[in-house]
Amino acid sequence: MEKQLNPDDFLDCIHCGLCLTSCPTYTLLGNETDSPRGRICLMRSLAEATIGFTKNVVKHFDTCLECRACETACPSGVHFGELLEKTRNVVETVYERPKNEKRLRDFILKKALVSDRFLKISFKFVSLVNDFGLNFLFRFFPNHTQKILQKLPQTKPFEPLQEFYPA
Fold first, then answer.
1. pLDDT tens figures, 109-129
2. CA–CA separation, 126 vs 130, rounded Å?
3. pLDDT tier at 131 (50, 70, 90 boundaries)?
4. Distance (Å, whole) CA 134 – CA 12
5. What is the pTM of this model?
6. Rounded CA gap, 52 and 10, in Å?
7. CA–CA distance, 72 with 1 (Å, rounded to integer)
8. Helices and strands (H and E) in the chain: how many
9. Rounded to the nearest 10 degrees, how much is the dihedral formed by the CA atoms of 63, 69, 70, 71?
10. Is 119 in contact with 126 (CB distance < 8 Å)?
């Protein structure tokens, strides 16, 4: 393992679980390994070399939004964002992503998310799919993306978006 990850860096987490309800990916997916506590366990296992960089392990780091909401809920003051940044840096140097996934990630991160036009078109597409009941089109997306798209507010055709939607 690279010197960037030290198993001792992950000892501050006392595994109390207070971070779970503040984590949007855990709340949505309900999977322990998609929670800050679960990701810290994965990071420590990688640092100790008890597990390897597999597609399944890397997936749990990729799904984190890095919103750092867990940090405010943590009584031990774990700097989860810093730990995740270090881990993601190691993942990018050690883990070889499939070529199609690498191209898609490069497109999304370097082109799509920095383009206002692309984002407007994407949101309009999702809105039209919802408006006309074409949600079956979502089945072509990965499972975690399907769940996120299904959680978007349902609107009537051509109804302007409200200013506030309750959780």
1. 788 778 888 878 877 887 777
2. 6
3. confident
4. 47
5. 0.67
6. 17
7. 30
8. 8, 0
9. 130
10. no
